[in-house]
Write a structure and sequence with these properties.
about 300 residues, alpha+beta, OB fold (Dihydrolipoamide Acetyltransferase, E2P), 3 domains, 5-stranded mixed barrel, 3-stranded mixed sheet, about 25% strand, globular
């Protein structure tokens, strides 16, 4: 960052992305550094984050060509390049793409800076769930055994295997009141393991445990919370309010138990946001207790399995 500060102090503020690339030494502007500057929001006044990230090679090439030309005077750095490539590098044009979502911007800021800069998603979550959840700070020893709802962001996830060979997890939920440990036992883990990820906003329901004088939440239900791009600020949308989609699977009535077990394992490997329903011989309807990621790949694997 010292090189960026040096270039800025040597003249006026950076007037454009091209101006930035021409003034900051290209030896400093490698791909990793450019990505970090863009993802953290340091270049927001000069260009859109995702567009800059998708144009990294073009931008570093532009910086090198402009500065090498200035240093070398008559040096023709395009001597071995065709005219089309030379034109792309000397004229700064970013790759067209959809802008980064609020969720992406916040995730990048948290990963690179350890904090949210553009906005605090926890404030948005609290506004949305006002009256529908409690703060982790409000939980007391007297709440032992009571079921509570919390909303926040997962800041840590640890998966383990029990002595019985079953998977479970521990996670930390961060809200405006602080942090609380979540315990996800094997049965619930199988239903929500696709949701368990660091920096994932979630809405959680569970039973308060005060064992060993430490307050924890034994999770019963966990849902993703989404950031709505239509809102003026980051707003989390509960899973129940997201557009309804169903992944339907048709099975013959005489399907074997072995096939059903294989199907269950396949669906568990593709957990996601879409409700899944199995129709047996078009008469019996079974709702799968967890959601899946609907994709052409999963559809093909299911078709192959039940064929």
């Amino acid at each position: 960052m010292a090189e960026v500060i040096r270039a800025r102090q040597a003249g006026e503020k950076f007037s454009s992305l091209a101006n930035f690339l021409e003034r900051v030494s290209f030896e400093f502007l490698n791909k990793k550094m450019m990505e970090a500057l863009a993802m953290s929001g340091a270049l927001d006044q000069l260009g859109e984050r995702k567009q800059i990230i998708n144009s990294i090679d073009r931008l570093t090439g532009y910086a090198k060509s402009k500065q090498a030309g200035a240093i070398g005077g008559q040096l023709d750095i395009f001597g071995l390049m065709d005219e089309k490539v030379a034109a792309e590098v000397t004229s700064l044009q970013l790759e067209p793409c959809a802008p980064a979502t609020r969720a992406e911007r916040l995730l990048w800021e948290k990963e690179l800076l350890g904090m949210y800069v553009s906005e605090n998603p926890l404030l948005a979550l609290r506004r949305l769930y006002r009256g529908k959840s409690v703060s982790s700070k409000s939980l007391k020893q007297e709440d032992e055994g009571k079921r509570k709802r919390l909303v926040g962001i997962l800041s840590n996830v640890k998966r383990i295997t029990t002595k019985n060979g079953e998977e479970m997890a521990f996670a930390a939920l961060e809200d405006l009141g602080g942090k609380i440990e979540l315990v996800v036992f094997p049965r619930v883990y199988q239903e929500i393991k696709g949701v368990l990820a660091v920096n994932q906003p979630v809405h959680v329901r569970g039973k308060v445990s005060t064992r060993d004088a430490e307050i924890k939440l034994l999770v019963d239900v966990m849902e993703r919370a989404y950031f709505s791009e239509d809102a003026p600020a980051a707003v989390a949308v509960p899973l129940s309010q997201s557009p309804t989609q169903i992944f339907a699977i048709q099975l013959p009535g005489d399907v074997s138990v072995d096939k059903l077990q294989q199907l269950k394992e396949l669906l568990q490997q593709h957990q996601g946001d879409t409700e899944c329903v199995i129709h047996l011989n078009k008469r019996k309807r079974i709702k799968v207790p967890f959601r899946v990621t609907k994709s052409a790949e999963l559809e093909a694997k299911v078709a192959e399995l039940v064929a």
